[in-house]
Amino acid sequence: MERDDKKFSGGRKYRNDEITVYWKPSSCVHASYCYRELVEVFDPGRRPWIDMTGSTTDNIIDIVNLCPTDALSWKWNNDEKNAEISEDQLNHVKFRRPELMDTNEAAPQETPVSVKIMVDGPIVIKGNLTLSNNGTLKEVQESIISICRCGASDHQPHCDGQHRKIGFIG
Amino acid sequence: MEENKKQKSQALVEITDFGPLKITGNFTVKDLKRDKEDSAGEIWLCRCGRSENKPYCDGSHKK
Ligand code: SF4
Ligand code: FES
Ligand code: FES
After folding, report:
1. Is residue B54 lining ligand 3, measured as CB closer than 6 Å?
2. Chain A closest-CA separation from residue B59 CA (Å)
3. Could you tell me if A9 and A24 are in contact, meaning their C-beta atoms sit under 8 angstroms apart?
4. Number of other residues whose CB lies within 10 A of the CB of residue A78
């Protein structure tokens, strides 16, 4: 599940694969239902204070529906489900913050990273990934990296063409 | 939509000196030599050139 803590007009939003929760701090009266009920998800002592991976979607919806104000509201990421929401879903944005009904929260494209084992050559990796080189992390976006498979590169971990010189087969 | 267009990282690619390449997450593997595809969530690929089970690491790098 994805944790998202993006700013949007008038507060923040937090999403998992199924729903987005909207947080409008100016409306919060600190009745604190939310963190008493589900501290794994709503914890004011933590940043970000809403952790969408802390519980199931059903639990999160139940707690959001308990908020007595429009400080917390939610909707499905799938708009078809929002269209047929029932009235007992008190804090669905349709009832609390109808202006948010048209925002599209469909999941961003999640294209798998492509890994190719070249014939007698390197591993070629393409996509959005995190590279850890002996523990040092680096985000790599939309670029291609080529990792030596023959063991002979002078520029480890990258392929530098040595595999041809040594006649690597594998 | 709004704000940044940054794409979410889909996979973690880990390199350790003298060890295999570990990949976890959302990825596909195409082995052009053996004409095989794999979409396991976790693999170790040989980087030393000595594995008997290429493209995977079989521990030969330790020998
Ligand atoms: S339940 Fe609503 S009003 Fe109460 S603390 Fe949580 S967000 Fe604020
Ligand atoms: S695979 Fe190209 S240098 Fe090793
Ligand atoms: S890296 Fe483990 S066998 Fe080559």
Report:
1. no
2. 14
3. no
4. 13
Residues of chain A with C-beta less than 8 angstroms from the C-beta of B50: 151
Q: Atom of ligand 1 at shortest distance to CA of A35? A: 6
As a whole number of angstroms, the distance between CA A129 and CA A122 comes to: 18
Q: Decide: B55 in ligand 3 pocket, CB within 6 A.
A: no
Q: Looking at this protein, which amino acid is placed at residue A28? A: C
Return the residue of B nearest to A126 by Cα.
B27
Q: Please check whether residue A66 is in contact with residue A34, taking contact to mean a CB–CB distance below 8 angstroms.
A: yes
Position A37 scores a pLDDT of: 86
**pTM of this prediction exceeds 0.95:** no
* ipTM entry: 0.90
Asked if residue A6 has pLDDT above 90, the reply is no
* CA separation, residue A18 to residues B10, B34, B38 (Å): 18, 39, 28
Please list the residues that pair with A117 across neighbouring strands.
Answer: A123, B31
Domain spans, chain A? 12-100, 114-166
The CB-side HSE value for A22 (13 A sphere, CA atoms) comes to 27
Chain A touched by B63 (CB under 8 Å): no
Whole-number pLDDT of residue B1 = 37
Question: Cα A76 from chain centroid?
Answer: 15
∠ CA A4-A5-A8, nearest 5°, is 115
B33 touches chain A (CB under 8 A): yes
| Number of residues assigned to chain B | 63
